[in-house]
Please model this.
Amino acid sequence: MPPVIAHLDIDAFYASVELLRRPELKGRPVVVGGSGPRAVVTTASYEARRSGVGSAMPMSRARRLCPEAVVIPPDFPAYREQSAVVMGLVRGAVDEVEVMGLDEAYLDLTGLLSPRASMRRLVTQIRAATGLDASVGIGPNKLVAKVASEAEKPQGFVVLTREQACVRFAGSPPRLVPGIGAKTAERLDELGITTLAALAKADPDVLTGAFGPRQGPWLAARARFEGSTHVEAVREAVSESRETTFDVDITVRDELEAQLHRLADQLCKGLQKHERAGRTIAIKVRLDDWTTVTRARTIAHATNEVEHVGQVALELLREYAPPRPVRLLGVRVASFGGTEEPAPEPVQLALPV
Ligand SMILES: [Mg+2]
Model:
């Protein structure tokens, strides 16, 4: 049976949740983001996007581009609540679901009699239950589905074969494809490869020469919209963390340790609330030059006590002894499920960098 994969993505999720509870803002540019000097845009409504405001943009820039924007601080509990409703409906519609975040998921529709009708129905259900709009892409693999769902936002509904995707996005820059970032795009540019079509038919030797024997062929395959069809239910979170970016880089050791303790305290309160405890304690430190290091240690018994977590985190921080001013600090506890589990490999603990 040929694989049929859908990607569903709520349109401007955080901003849309805010607009639903503040209908008086409808039609006005809305930006969800923090207020500190280093705050970035988490989501912009489509009205704000028209002024050039985009996700991850520094808030100061967003305010310059769109001075009339209404800025709302993020309310993650509210987003999680709406997300739970959305994902409940998604899981009710299809057995195989891979949730990719609060507002997007891959669905395996293989074998369904009418994949399109199923997805139309799901979008209607989500709208009825939450008031949120979603965009959907359907294709033979996750890559086609993902790019298709982005193609006509908001309220997009795009169904493409792999070949159709190649034709439709032939003139698009390589960066359109997830996994091809700014650096790679720049190097492709230097090779004169500025479109997906050019990348798809680029000389394999040239790509391998520039990007190595693994990434070279991979890039060409991405440009041909070859992708994974593996939709895998994501396990429950196996770690929980708190991190903070400081408004001003911290150089004073006592101050850094106080911040670390504060993060450990917040983290442990969260763990206790969720009745979770873990054995691996990790810290993440980003220096002012963006060097980012993580250090982890696994202890004998699961804990969610700030005395234990804070102590291990402090030891890790002292052992690392940041050589430069610290921009970001984080604490994580992982490997839930008690002491019966085999110890995980602490060095592989995935802390988002
Ligand atoms: Mg979204």
In short: Confidence is low (pLDDT under 50) at residues 337-353. The chain is about 40% helix and 20% strand.
